[in-house]
Amino acid sequence: MEQSNDKEGHDVVGGHFDLPVKKAINFSPPLYRQRYSFVNDLVNQHKPKKVADLGCGNASLIQMIKSHSCLELIVGVDINKDKIGSQRCRLSPFSGEYLSPRDLNLSIILYHGSAVERDSRLLGFDLVTCIELIEHLDAEDLARFPEVVFGYLSPAMVVISTPNSDFNPLFPAVTLRDSDHKFEWNRKQVQTWALGVAGFYHYAVEFTGVGEPPEGAEHVGYCTQIGVFRKVGAPATEPCVAEQCGQHIYKIVYSVSYPSLQQKEVRKLALANEVSRQVQSMRQRYVSSLRILQRGEGNGHQVSDTGLVTFSGPVFTELEKLKIEKSPEPFRFGNKLYVPLERLLAYPKVNRLCDSVDTMRALIADTVRLSRDGSAVKVDLRDASP
Amino acid sequence: MTGRARVRARGITRSPSATAAGCLQASPTPVSADLSDNEASSNNGCEETSRISQQCKYVVSPGNAESTLMKRGGKIFPDVMDLGVCTREKLAHVRDSKAGSSGIPVKLVTNLFSLDLPQDWKLYQYHVTYMPDLESRSMRIALLYSQKELSNKAKAFDGVILFLSEKLEERVTELSSETRRGETVKMTVTLTRELPASSPVCIQVFSIIFKKILKKLSMYQIGRNFYKPSEPVEIPQHKLSLWPGFAISVSYFESKLLFSANVSYKILRNETVLEFMTALCYQTGMSSFTQMCEKQLVGLIVLTRYNNRTYRVDDIDWSVKPTHSFQRRDGTEITYVDYYKQQYDITLSDLHQPMLVSLLKSKRNDVEARMVHLIPELCFLTGLTSQATSDFQLMKAVAEETRLSPQGRQQRLARLADDIQRNNDARFELETWGLHFGSQMSLTGRVVPSEKIFMQDRICQPVSAADWSKDIRSCKLLSAQSLNKWLIICSSRAENVIENFLSCLRRVGSSMGFNVDYPKIIKVQESPAAFFGAIQKHVDRDVQLVMCILPSAQQSYYESIKKYLSSDCPVPSQCVLVRTLSKQGMMMSIATKIAMQMTCKLGGELWAVEIPLKSLMVVGIDVCKDAFNKGMVVVGFVASINLRITRYFYNDSRALNKWYEYNQGLPARIIVYRDGVGNGQLQTLLEYEVPQLLSSVAEASSNTSSKLSVIVVRKRCMPRFFMEQNRTLQNPPLGTVVDSEATRPEWYDFYLVSQAACRGTVNPTHYNVIYDDNGLKPDHMQRLTFKLCHLYYNWPGLVSIPAPCQYAHKLTFLVAQSIHKEPSLQLANSLFYL
Lengths: 386, 834
Known about the structure:
The complex is a heterodimer. Chain A is an alpha/beta fold. Chain A folds into two domains: 31-258, Rossmann fold (3-Layer(aba) Sandwich), CATH 3.40.50.150; 264-293 and 308-380, Orthogonal Bundle (Arc Repressor Mutant, subunit A), CATH 1.10.10. Helices cover 33% and strands 17% of the residues of chain A. Chain A has an eight-stranded mixed β-sheet. The radius of gyration of chain A is 28 Å and the shape is elongated. The model of chain A is unreliable at 1-23 and 297-308 (pLDDT under 50). Chain B is of the alpha+beta class. Chain B has an 18-stranded mixed β-sheet that branches. In chain B, strands 4-5-3-7-6 form a five-stranded antiparallel β-sheet, sandwiched between helices. In chain B, strands 25-24-26-27 form a four-stranded parallel β-sheet, sandwiched between helices. In chain B, helix 5 (200-216) runs antiparallel to helix 12 (424-433) and helix 13 (495-512) packs across helix 17. Chains A and B meet through helix 1, helix 4 and helix 8 of A and helix 4, helix 6 and helix 8 of B.
């Protein structure tokens, strides 16, 4: 729920302060980024499919984690409608994501709503993050919060971060770090609250934090305290719950879905691109091998490693190499080079996109020229252009 | 002549700009004053960055008070700036009407949509100050937007200037807000101006509104255009992806505010730098690989797929590998492989690839440039290289996908209009501003009478003005010098085609009245040096023409030959590819074409049209950037020197003398067609170029000086016209003139359709008469322009711009691409640059 003035995080240090007032304590990278990195690492480690960020603000955390291939649904919820909207175009897919699409579908949805209200669309998540959220809740909301997040949403994992008031004396003249903070707890208070909640809703909690205290003040602990809650004996999530008691209270502010190889059209295009790329590179190799043959061996200086420069082109594992070598080789007939589909399928990058020669043929038939029997891709050898 | 050259010669397409094909204007940058929406426009295409700097120097502040708007860091749109240049009011003869009269009226559908505003609509401009002052723009915006007074109002705010469509109660409004830190910030909102809807500032605000709307229709902004990445067209064999989209603009046309939309395609390259390097490696072999790689890659702009940023490749570091580590900002060391894995969940497949090096220019000057390493595997190439744009197959494939028939275009437009009208968010946005998105506009144009083509022995009325090659097949050319002493230089590969070609050439020559004797044939080896050597050895003063039959389209052949024969040893030259001469079935038409070109290069005239104005000199001016030295601009000047306007002279300082020589007197009228004027340069043109032209005309004679008119020619303009016929839309007929509704009230301008588009949609050419002493009737001006479009000798048909302009373009293109210096004056009388 805080503002990061500098979107790239280049030069603002301790970037969670609204006004550019020099602070005695600077964090590098800025504290908000350290918090996001913490979540990013968790995602990396636990590979959740569905993540919800409560109090997502301008969705910078979502922006940061969205590139993880394991993710299929990311939801952001915030009570401040203006803020959710502000950066949303940064959540839409980049052009690169159309050119080289992800494996799995990904949707990102931003809702306008409160973290202490129940919305069934947030059921069945693997990870719910509440970064610097609870300190913005008043007593009443704070009391409802565990019941909604742990009791109702009941995700496999919850991450809660909040300021550590033990650290505050190190800041010059600060009572609360933000005017909207209703409270700031010390480590003891946080742990008491968290253990209580965890015990009641059958979660195990670990405490950690980000923002190391400066030398000589180690006793105050991290600047931001983080509790990682994991459901104890969590059964597999029941996806049907969502449908059973559908209550949709949140309002959708933004939603986007990413192109992925799960979408047939996208896969088709990606495969056609990859196939023609491989075929062209084979054609090129074939043409240059002819050229070398023509010139004779007098010109055999092509491997003149200067020691520094090694450029190998694509790298294959032993297994992949074997697979490629075993597959039928490209052959020439007249002016045409024929590359058997089986050969193409042996290349890992093609193989990733389709599992059999038949599917490949079906997918590329209308974009790539095939031999008459449909077993090979046909290219012209004459055209000199690369 | 290759197919590409043919297309260019006809002036149908200039190779599409490297970033986007279709119909975009040479647009400058996304304007920095993105008021109100802090949704940063994410990136810009590869050329854009370089354009900023060039564009900047042309930014002249329009003389009216409105320009104060963007003085804080922002720029006014250059095309909006041009609109502030009111040239018509100085031209008395068109003050009341600039409409022509001749021709048959034709009903046309346009790509313009009306935007309706309430009668008394006004835009209120406020100035906002903060106490204490705040640096951060986003903070300023957030604080102001949190105010209840402003919450349901349509607003646009850039941090200083606030635009509202409704007036606040007070002229000065004091607001106060609290930051998260608990500090109270006072904001003073002061009304500075009330702007009528016709003000250029409003146009800019309207553009911002539409930008927002198109984003709401989930379109993706690149540069100034909007694209739909969800419906891509792929061209796998050339590793290209095309995104369909629109170039849009809002502006005031003759009587009302109109929204115009043009279909545009964004060309993305579906190829990573690593793939490019691999291909290059196979192609060149290891020995010259690193060198070639650097030559091809350094200077290119690449797009990183993980964060969508663009970087310029400044170097390649062959010693750094992805497995090496670097220092992160917090001081810890991490390898590139781990970094990308952790940060973006990307697994690198090739751990031996070298690194691209890019220097990041700091926004602040005091910090030295930071160097970043980029992984080739994660970088996409952007833009089309000159190599790609000269690849005929590639450009053909792109053209096939991007070319839309008028009907197809109309469908896209209708869908866009429908989307804007139906989308709730979009409608809401328009409504809060008081705008109403109206219907597509139709107007009435005129088809001016067709022209007769004058040959030596007959006058013919072509069946189609698009191509009269058949009509004149058996006619004699107006004048042709006979070719007695000439050379053919060829490689041995061309031997078997040469005899057949020569016999065809002589046959077509004799029927045209162009006598071709047998040439001296010199056989050389297949290398640029061998060709060059042969030319040096055999060409002397008596040689009338040198024909080189080139084995390949390699630039070095053409360049060295043209350079030498255009300036060092001025002799007309004709280059032909062996491949062209090997096309058996087309030999006669190829020979005809070559014979015509040769005639022109020897100073002949092919055909003429009737020009009723006596003592008229027409001038074409075009500019082109030098291919090597991008900072250098080549200006081409071509002037007619005879009454029939069939002969031209290229040197500007002596053109009037030449005219005098030929016509025993100075021309009574001079009409200058000026091409190559960028957005926002109109004022400069008026302030510098027109006075210069006037003074050189005045210098030429002491008593009666010639009357001058200057017309700015633009091939890229927003409006498109379609003609409805048999319930489908078609291109308007050749000679269609539009001089109402889609024109601008402050200009003496008109559109003319003078080119045929057999496939795709025709682009009308826009003519803006910015200076006119001659006082010709608009109708005469339009018809003269149309006539001049018939006189380009590289194509037996109409071309998109007047012939002198097209000649000037050819000349500058030759100088900028190949010879890089001024051609010899000895050739100045002939069309040696065809």
